[in-house]
Design brief:
The structure holds 2 protein chains of 2 kinds. By secondary structure, chain A is mainly alpha-helical. Helices cover about 45% and strands about 10% of the residues of chain A. A 3-stranded antiparallel β-sheet of chain A has the order 1-2-3, with helices on one face. Chain A has a 3-stranded antiparallel β-sheet with strand order 4-5-12. In chain A, strands 6-7 form a two-stranded antiparallel ribbon. Chain B has 13 helices and 11 strands. In chain B, strand 3 and strand 4 form a beta hairpin. The chains are: A mainly alpha, B alpha/beta.
């Protein structure tokens, strides 16, 4: 059991069977049967949960206690650079800011919250080749001593090419180039000079082109193909250069800098303390800001905002510029809280201020000028942190109104780490606004549909808390001419709790240990680029513990993630050679 | 929009054609290495038969159809409202009614219609968590293109296009063939060489060949010690590089009517569909490819998907006219859904019309081709993967008896239409196996299990 406590999984199975029965036309309705499940949660103790079929009401509590293996670590599947990582890497490797991977196929993985690039099909290989050729061509003027070259070719072209292979190769492959790899690159250079009759610069360009298409560059696996694994008990410790790249790609979304490669060469990344030191240094670099923005953008699925069409007859002021400003606002907000503010979850979820510009000022009824995102105080009775920002509310809003289901679902799945079964077939959508009544009234009716009930009773009472925000996040006190009711209930840490509106809801969320553990888990999965498994239980305990205190910061959490067992060790893969 | 029909283009060589031929002649004359030389004309299958080569196009669209307005009342496959755009081509159109994604039904994924793209043309299914899934075998377009590639070296053995949504094209190892998403970029891929001097092409190809010679052993060695899953990823990557390597030595032939014209860079959905259709027709005329897998529509129900050019917005239903929501409305959404479904048939008719406008052998390119269009579910209000709408256009070189509605399973005995949800028992694997045979790749089964072919089709 990984992401969810057994109690939650049990509840899930009850809800799934309920929905399947419904889909098959055997509607059983709410109420019974009632079941219970036991198991070991991520907190380590035995949890007990109950679930009621049809209503989906249930609670699962993961406590502390059950034994987990502190030496275990999960698998580390070999992954390819994501598009963001590719762009950042060629920026740091070649000084190229053209972001060629923006033209690659999407690296959105429907089975995972964060980016993962897919298998290299012909189309991908063709685009990777095109990018490599363009990057190599653009790098030609930099093929001089002191820039990309470590030598003056006029003193000996072939010798300089050899040095280039070693120095540039170490940065492109993010580890020293093995002797046989250098031999094959030399052969390519020689062929380019003799068979293709290219100049030194053009032949070196061919080397760049080739290295940018090589698996050593494209995949996260900074180990010479012939190197032996470092076994420690049942798991494998990652090599120094693998740790270096893991750190830099987690914290920067880019290749290691020279200092990090030097730390790897000196063996400084072979201990948790050494990794902690390096992680803190990387967190002090501006590149870490982009990672924090990237985490929140993917976690909140903000890339979907551009496709979330709004009814412009209802929201006359909503334009592509508004959309972009919303995304910029959230990015500026999280960066400033994590790197310029107190870095706490309570601030991310509750700050009565944001970073807005003139475009967004009317949305918030606030004063702001210019295009830059500026820290601006907002009405604390109306706004508190990320979940009251335009980006989230517009993304989870309907074309012409709010959508309590989507909003509740985000809290239920991303802040409480619950899962939902697929929606059952044949559920008619909620009635349109023209049918009369508030959004809440219309969705409540929809939720009484027996098919839909199982899930919606989990999501909607949370989502109703956001009823003070319309489809693009403007604050409102009436909906369809009737007063807004934003009260609701949420079960956190096993206890149902009432709130009067979103401000009350986010306050409950920020104080909940369950939410803190979930948030730490999300960062852990982001860093691992995979869902966690039983073998990662000890690692997730350490990251949850590092973030357990109200005063813990996101930077503390990121450093804890970088030093957790599953970040530095891995289980042997099936079929792997020792 | 009424499909525009063209007169048959005369089978003459154009200046563009000569550009292709002269470049190849130049490559030879310039003493390019043997490996870089394109295959001789006589080595190509084209010309081996007077009729011309067979070609396959698979098209996926989504959110089901308004079934009562889709299935024909009688034998004429274009006899109902939605199919009207194909009326002019009814003699070359075939409808197959009564097929299920049985591999999904039998796995309990009856209502996972938004997740059936991997199954649609592979006849395989593997759940990857929740409703997500993948294929475990090759799609029909891949199988056919591989068989053609064994005989003919085409510049683009398999052309995969995703106007929206995901690709339905998969390789034998279950890895997905990524689709091209940009019309302008595809035009360059297919026809850039026409605008380049021969010497430039030659230099570029030699340079790329050198890099590939370097990459192949690197890829072979890279994952040698890694686990099974990682080796499979690198193996798929290696296979892609090998395909690119072989296409380096291929050139388009410039057959009858090969007149590439730049389709520009359309930004609107409807223009993109048209642009890709234009390029597919050009690619066939120029024999750049013979196998195409196209996704026209987003397969998921998650992202908003609108067709503003159809004026579907309506304050009394779903105000922005979101296609998925309209499909969900069932019968009350039919008036809009019929507009949507009909539009897709117009696009199919447009593509078929382009192929039918080029003479080849005693008939047209369409006569030698087979376009297979399939949906991801029966009807948007059910999401059911039984009773999948399939439309075929083209004769597959005379192998397919066209101009009919072929009812299978319960549909064959129910007399009229039988569109209620349920497992009618004829797996779509049998259609895929039949297509394989129509395309001269003998098969008694396709995908995982469910052996057999649709004998009533051929």
């Amino acid at each position: 059991v990984s992401r969810f406590s057994p109690a939650k999984l049990f509840l899930l199975s009850v809800m799934i069977s309920s929905s399947l029965a419904c889909g098959a036309g055997q509607i059983t309705g709410g109420g019974s049967p009632t079941g219970s499940g036991t198991g070991t949660g991520t907190g380590g103790s035995t949890g007990v949960g109950t679930g009621t079929a049809g209503t989906g009401v249930g609670t699962g509590t993961a406590g502390a206690g059950g034994p987990v293996d502190p030496n275990a670590a999960g698998l580390m599947p070999m992954l390819r650079l994501t598009n963001r990582e590719y762009n950042n890497t060629v920026r740091d490797l070649l000084g190229d800011t053209t972001q060629p991977a923006s033209q690659f196929a999407s690296d959105r993985d429907p089975t995972f919250d964060f980016r993962r690039a897919g298998t290299v099909a012909v189309q991908d290989a063709t685009l990777i080749r095109g990018a490599a050729e363009a990057l190599a061509a653009a790098a030609a003027p930099k093929l001089v001593n002191g820039m990309l070259l470590p030598c003056d070719p006029t003193t000996g072209e072939d010798a300089c090419a050899q040095k280039f292979i070693t120095t540039f190769g170490q940065r492109a492959f993010r580890r020293p180039v093995a002797a046989d790899e250098a031999t094959r690159l030399t052969a390519l250079y020689t062929a380019a000079r003799t068979t293709l009759k290219l100049s030194f610069t053009d032949a070196t360009g061919v080397l760049i082109e080739a290295m940018l298409q090589a698996p050593q560059f494209l995949y996260h696996w900074e180990v010479a193909p012939t190197a032996m694994n470092i076994h420690e008990g049942a798991v494998i410790r990652l090599g120094s250069y693998q740790v270096a790249s893991r750190l830099s790609y987690f914290l920067w979304g880019s290749m290691p800098d020279d200092a990090l490669l030097a730390a790897a060469a000196a063996g400084q990344l072979d201990t948790a303390a050494g990794v902690q030191t390096a992680a803190r240094r990387l967190l002090g670099d501006a590149r870490a800001k982009d990672t924090v923005s990237s985490f929140f953008a993917d976690w909140m699925a903000l890339d979907g905002l551009s496709a979330r069409t709004k009814d412009t007859t209802v929201y006359k002021t909503y334009t592509p510029a508004t959309q972009q400003a919303m995304l910029d606002e959230t990015s500026a907000f999280v960066q400033n809280v994590v790197f310029g503010g107190d870095g706490r979850l309570a601030t991310l979820l509750g700050a009565p201020y944001s970073y807005i510009n003139a475009t967004l000022a009317p949305l918030y009824g606030a004063q702001a000028t210019g295009t830059a995102m500026t820290k601006t105080a907002l009405d604390p009775t109306q706004r508190g942190g990320l979940l009251t920002q335009g980006s989230f509310l517009a993304l989870t809003g309907n074309a012409d109104g709010s959508n309590p289901v989507r909003r509740g679902k985000f809290v239920f799945t991303k802040l409480m780490c619950n899962s939902l079964p697929p929606p059952p077939a044949n559920v008619p959508p909620p009635a349109p606004a023209s049918a009369g009544g508030t959004t809440r009234q219309r969705f409540t009716t929809h939720d009484q549909n027996a098919c839909a009930k199982g899930c919606h009773t989990s999501m909607d009472p949370i989502g109703f808390g956001f009823e003070n925000y319309d489809g693009i996040g403007q604050y409102r006190t009436t909906d369809n001419g009737l007063p807004v009711d934003a009260t609701g209930t949420i079960t956190l840490d096993g206890t149902p709790q009432n709130f009067t509106d979103a401000i009350g809801l986010v306050d409950l969320l920020a104080k909940s240990p369950e939410v803190r553990t979930c948030f730490a888990g999300e960062w852990s999965r982001f860093a691992l680029s995979r869902v966690d498994t039983d073998a990662d239980a000890a690692s997730l305990q350490t990251t949850a513990a590092a973030f357990a205190s109200d005063t813990a910061t996101v930077q503390d959490l990121m450093a804890a993630v970088a030093t957790m067992r599953s970040f530095r060790y891995r289980a042997p893969a099936p079929g792997e050679m020792p | 929009m009424t499909p525009k029909m063209f007169g048959k283009a005369p089978a003459i060589r154009t200046s563009t054609t000569r550009a292709y031929l002269s470049r190849r002649a130049f490559l030879r004359g310039a003493g390019a290495s043997l490996a870089l030389l394109p295959m001789l004309e006589s080595e190509r299958a084209r010309g081996a038969t007077a009729a011309g080569p067979k070609r396959l196009v698979t098209i996926s669209w989504s959110n089901g159809v308004a079934q009562p307005s889709f299935y024909p009342p009688a034998d004429d496959p274009t006899g109902n409202t939605i199919m009207q755009p194909l009326a002019a081509l009814k003699a070359k159109t075939t409808m197959v009614a009564g097929l299920d994604f049985k591999t999904m039904l039998d796995g309990g994924h009856t209502y996972d219609g938004h997740f059936s793209f991997p199954t649609m043309f592979t006849g395989t299914y593997k759940n990857t968590g929740g409703q997500n899934c993948t294929a475990t075998g090759a799609s029909i377009d891949q199988v056919v293109s591989t068989a053609i590639a064994a005989k003919v070296n085409l510049p683009v053995p398999l052309l995969t296009i995703t106007v929206q949504g995901k690709s339905t094209s998969y390789r034998a190892d279950g890895s997905q063939n990524t689709g091209e998403t940009q019309v302008a970029r595809l035009y360059k891929t297919l026809f850039a060489g026409t605008a380049m001097p021969g010497a430039t092409v030659s230099t570029l190809q030699q340079r790329r060949k050198s890099v590939i010679d370097y990459l192949l052993p690197e890829l072979q060695g890279f994952a040698a010690r890694r686990g099974t899953d990682d080796r499979a990823k690198i193996s798929a990557h290696l296979d892609s590089i090998r395909q690119i390597e072989s296409s380096l030595t291929a050139t388009a032939m410039g057959g009858a009517g090969c007149m590439p014209t730049d389709p520009g860079a359309p930004t609107m959905y409807q223009d993109q569909v048209k642009g890709f259709n234009d390029l597919v027709a050009m690619a066939f005329r120029c024999d750049v490819t013979r196998t195409v897998a196209m996704s026209w529509a987003d397969d998921g129900g998650s992202g908003p998907y609108t067709m503003p050019f159809l004026n579907l917005d309506d304050p009394t239903t779903m105000s922005i006219g979101e296609v998925h929501n309209i499909a969900h409305l069932g019968m009350t959404g039919y008036p809009k859904k019929i507009l949507i479904d009909t539009w897709y048939m117009q696009q199919l008719a447009y593509l078929a019309g382009l192929l039918d406008a080029t003479a080849e052998g005693g008939g047209t390119i369409l006569d030698n081709s087979l376009i297979v269009m399939g949906n991801d579910m029966s009807e948007g209000s059910f999401h059911s993967v039984s009773n999948i709408p399939y439309v075929l256009v083209g004769g597959a070189g005379g192998a397919l008896k066209t101009g009919r509605t072929v009812r299978v399973g319960k549909w064959a005995t129910a007399g009229a239409n039988y569109w209620s949800s349920g497992n009618t028992g004829v797996p779509h694997n049998q259609l895929l196996a039949t297509i394989s045979n129509l395309m001269d790749v003998p098969a008694t089964s396709f995908g995982t299990g469910y052996a057999g072919t649709l004998t009533s089709l051929a």
